[in-house]
Design a protein that fits this description.
The chain is mainly alpha-helical. The chain has 23 helices and five strands. The strands form two sheets. The chain has a three-stranded antiparallel sheet with strand order 1-5-4, with no helix packed on it. A two-stranded antiparallel ribbon has the order 2-3. β4 and β5 form a beta hairpin. α8 packs across α10. The longest helix is centred in the middle third of the chain and has 17 residues. The chain is globular. The two termini are 39 Å apart.
Length: 679
């Protein structure tokens, strides 16, 4: 198994058991060997693990020691759905840079993820997803698979049953339009002239979320140019239309009622299409130049844009449409950055939607600390130094709304200086807090800057979004382009809980103005039954874990009725086997909140939430701990097929391959610390 630049923790991927090649060097920083404490000293400091709980902790702790990379970090696969890899192959074909061996591997990967029913889903065990299935089918056609192939026939039957291409989401239609398989005028308008709106305008590019902005700006270039690369007949997918499309088929479905915002924006889209068809657009050239400049300025030295596949792929695509050659430095670096997101074996190739080494390292480090590893242990020191070296010290897009705020904090990826986020920043600082590094003063200064930056990112309503402040123009999610309902980054309770936990961990009082406003936000957004919705993890279990940990850390009175309701809700959702689980479908159907097959990660969240709320000695927690002990494998890991991470609620789910091991370890270690029990 290979990745193009950085080694990955091989047992934390969907390609388990394949030994990763040693690192040759990382981002200009010299890699070093991880030195562990001598066995005699370790046993002296830790004692013999003679009971079940201790032995389980030791097994998982040793697993993380084995999986730590030489430079000091952990990096696990971030698994999503097949559209990410399918679009990678589409890019190769559009740019005329197809590598047949990579194409073969991508096709193998796509076929391996097809269900026996013939469709592709957006998470394990989920229902068939039309757009995902269309993109996989199209990519396989590009790779040479004929429509008569059994896998294609089964997929096509599902697609036509669901309404065909006409019923797909916007991004799928755009990729089809690039090859003439869908009409450009059927794609929602995003006029390039939006680039010229001032920052004070109600709708401007900085009212979009960071991920939307970094994707829409390059995509608006592509949509302005409307390129078409004609395909040979064998690669076309016209068979995926239920009937030959008519002009009316390209219109958008209106909501019931007349004066709804969605219907108003559909009318606006119609007017914009008339405008875009006008050959006289005096500001078009200036807007294109502004967008081109923005794209070039926002490329990281490593070639990345925004640290996510949609921004990176569409930026490469935009530059190609503007006439940049494939060997132009910006394009070449962009393609290299995309390749660095790929995991490749002899038979398969998957492109990750994003990479998470900072997040993974902070989670592993915190779990090891929770499990009782000494804070001067060389592995922890090495990981902390790696994290310290990745502090963001440059102003990013967040500066538009916080012009006087000093840069600080951390991003999710190896390098993403334009977009640090409060979640990574908070978890990193909590993880490194007590680690005994040589440069203690330097660490304290980084933490000071990071906390200052996080507090400065609090929104007016008292909550926190991930990447931006006051990113709350909810009307943007009503425009036709917004069929993923994810064009903004509003404050959420899970992130707000994390910020309270950060403040409490570093000694901020509950009376601090930021904490007071955050507590009000959390109380206002609690669900009637007691839980909190989870924006970045599945779902109510995740949100409730984050909030309860934050409330406990900041010193909230845990006997209050609203907290008791949350505790009782978690207890009521415990499964018969002692664990907890929640299906991704709870985003569509709130009646499924806290309902699902038990998983190691969600059980870890539930246990950590209950223990934060003072329930460490309860029978509910004891049963949850027993579930983790009974399902642990001999190598210290847990199996977990379910997706428990969230990219966009309802539409883009994530399986973080580190979650199934780090959160159980944190829960087991915290339980031992709080109870002193041996099981």
């Amino acid at each position: 198994m290979t990745t193009s630049k950085h080694p990955i923790s091989h047992a934390l991927t969907s390609f388990n058991g394949i030994v990763m090649e040693p690192e040759s060097g990382t981002a200009g920083k010299q890699a070093g060997k991880i030195h562990h404490l001598p066995t005699s000293l370790w046993k002296k400091r830790e004692g013999e693990a003679t009971d079940t709980l201790d032995a389980a902790i030791v097994r998982t702790r040793d697993f993380f020691f084995r999986e730590q990379l030489p430079a000091g970090y952990w990096w696990a696969e971030l698994e999503s759905n097949v559209t990410i890899t399918a679009e990678y192959l589409m890019l190769f074909h559009f740019m005329g840079i197809v590598n047949r061996e990579k194409e073969r591997k991508i096709a193998n990967y796509l076929l391996s993820k097809q269900t026996k029913e013939g469709f592709w889903a957006i998470y394990y065990g989920g229902p068939g997803d039309l757009s995902t299935t269309v993109e996989a089918y199209f990519a396989l056609k590009l790779a040479g698979y004929p429509a008569e192939h059994p896998a294609m026939a089964k997929a096509r039957a599902f697609i036509l049953e669901q309404g065909g291409i006409i019923k797909c989401r916007v991004f799928t239609k755009i990729f089809l339009a690039l090859f003439g398989e869908f009409a450009w005028f059927g794609v929602p308008s995003m006029p390039i002239e939006l680039m010229l709106l001032p920052n004070w305008a109600y709708f401007n590019m900085y009212e979009f979320s960071s991920w939307s902005r970094a994707t829409i700006i390059p995509l608006s270039i592509v949509m302005t140019e409307r390129p078409v690369r004609k395909l040979p007949e064998r690669s076309r997918v016209q068979e995926l239309y239920v009937r030959p499309p008519r002009p009316i088929d390209y219109t958008f479905t209106k909501e019931n009622g007349i004066l709804t915002w969605k219907n108003i924006f559909i009318g606006v889209d119609h007017l914009l299409k008339i405008y875009e068809s006008n050959p006289i657009r005096p500001l078009k050239s200036k807007a294109l130049g502004t967008a081109e400049k923005w794209v070039l300025e926002h490329q990281e030295p490593t070639g990345d844009w925004g640290g996510i596949q949609p921004a990176m792929l569409n930026s490469v695509l935009a530059l190609h449409c503007l006439g940049y050659s494939n060997d132009h430095p910006a394009v070449a670096k962009g393609l290299e950055a995309l390749a660095n997101f790929a995991i490749e074996t002899e038979e398969g190739l998957v492109l990750q939607s994003c990479v998470s080494p900072v997040w993974d390292t902070a989670l592993a480090l915190k779990a090891l600390v929770d499990s009782g590893v000494p804070t001067d242990h060389p592995s922890l020191v090495k990981a902390t130094q790696w994290l310290m070296d990745r502090e963001v010290r440059k102003p990013g897009d967040w500066k538009v709304k916080s012009p006087n705020l000093e840069p600080g904090g951390w991003a999710f990826e190896f390098l993403n200086d334009w977009y640090p986020d409060v979640d990574d920043s908070g978890f990193v600082m909590m993880a490194i807090k007590d680690i005994e590094v040589k440069d203690r003063k330097g660490k304290e200064e980084k933490i000071r800057r990071g906390i200052n930056w996080c507090l400065g990112m609090q929104s007016k309503n008292g909550g926190w979004g991930a990447f931006d402040k006051d990113n709350t123009k909810h009307l943007l999610n009503k425009i036709p382009f917004a069929d993923l309902e994810a064009l903004i980054d509003p404050p959420t309770v899970d992130l707000t809980g994390r910020m309270l936990e950060l403040m409490g961990t570093f000694g901020y009082p509950k009376s601090h103005s930021a904490a007071v406003r955050a507590l009000d936000f959390i109380k206002e957004n609690q669900e009637p039954e007691g839980p909190w919705w989870g924006r970045w993890g599945v779902n109510y279990i995740y949100g409730t874990w984050s909030v309860l940990c934050g409330l406990a850390a900041i010193g909230e009175d845990l006997s209050q009725p609203y907290i008791k309701r949350a505790v009782n809700w978690i207890k009521s959702r415990q499964n018969m086997d002692g664990g907890w689980g929640e299906t991704c479908e709870s985003y569509h159907d709130p009646s499924l909140a806290g309902v699902g097959e038990s998983t190691a990660s969600q059980t870890g969240w539930a246990l950590l939430a209950l223990m934060a709320a003072g329930e460490a000695h309860s029978s509910t927690v004891a049963r949850g701990i027993q579930y983790l002990l009974s399902t642990q494998k001999p190598d210290g890991t847990w199996d977990e097929d379910q997706y428990t991470g969230t990219g966009f609620p309802k539409y883009f789910m994530i399986k973080y391959h580190i979650y199934r091991n780090c959160f159980p370890l944190s829960a087991l270690g915290t339980y031992r610390s709080l109870t002193g029990k041996k099981m």
